[in-house]
Design goal:
Strand order of the largest sheet: 3-2-1-4-5-7-6
Order of helices and strands: HHEHEHEEHEHEE
Structural class: alpha/beta
Helix content: 25-40%
Number of helices: 6
Largest sheet: 7 strands, mixed
Distance between the termini: 34 Å
Radius of gyration: 16 Å
Length: 216
């Protein structure tokens, strides 16, 4: 039986990891690039990032991609991560962060993008379903869900890496930050979401999945 870290345990883990999470950029950035290619962030008016982490992605979006007047709201359960993000986006007047469980968020107003990078792979199936319901509720009509997470390796080294990763997660999930490879697409009910793009990436044996879906 797969064991998942609870919210309090996730908070402790990521308070401890802190800015070291940025070292994961080597496998996260290919998935982020896919979301940027297909998510039309340059036309976004409001973005909600569920699980903003260190604010590395938020700062890049605000500096390089989003329109200057775009509203950005980031959420995380880790006080340390929120403080780090807050300092990194301080120069942007339309950006803020909030402390929230991303599987049960209810931010004020609606958004035309919901972004989440390597967070759903922390969640149980029930939590992923709750997160997707929340995302659907806060997205404006025609809004885009842009999500990336660890994926099953399909062959060779990637397949071996994901098998080892899952085994470690089953024994001691905190060692891998509570994350494990899975599938985002299988969680998206077709009556609510229309998948626009679903790309698999592999960097140094670590596989990821990047999905862009429109609210149906």
């Amino acid at each position: 039986m797969t064991t998942f870290l609870g919210t309090a345990a996730v908070e402790r883990v990521y308070d401890r990891i802190g800015a070291l999470q940025d070292t994961q950029a080597f496998y996260e950035d290919p998935a982020l690039a896919a979301l940027l290619r297909h998510g039309a962030f340059e036309r976004a008016h409001s973005v909600y990032e569920a699980g903003c982490g260190t604010g590395r992605v938020a700062r890049r979006l605000l500096r390089e991609v989003l329109p200057y007047d775009c509203r950005y709201v980031g959420a995380d359960v880790s006080a340390h991560m929120l403080a780090t993000t807050r300092s990194r986006i301080a120069a942007f007047p339309n950006a803020c962060v909030i402390r929230a469980d991303v599987a049960a968020f209810r931010p004020a107003g609606s958004f035309d993008r919901v972004l989440s990078l390597f967070v759903v792979d922390l969640m149980s199936d029930a939590q992923v379903a709750a997160f997707l319901r929340c995302a659907y509720d806060v997205l404006a009509d025609g809004g885009l869900l842009c999500v990336a997470g660890l994926a099953e390796g399909e062959r060779g080294i990637a397949r071996a890496v994901s098998a080892i990763w899952k085994r470690v997660h089953d024994v001691a999930p905190a060692i891998v930050g509570g994350c494990r490879p899975g599938s985002i697409v299988r969680h998206l009910p077709l009556q609510r979401w229309r998948i626009l793009e679903a790309e698999h990436q592999c960097a140094y044996g670590v596989s990821s999945e990047a999905v862009v879906a429109v609210k149906a």
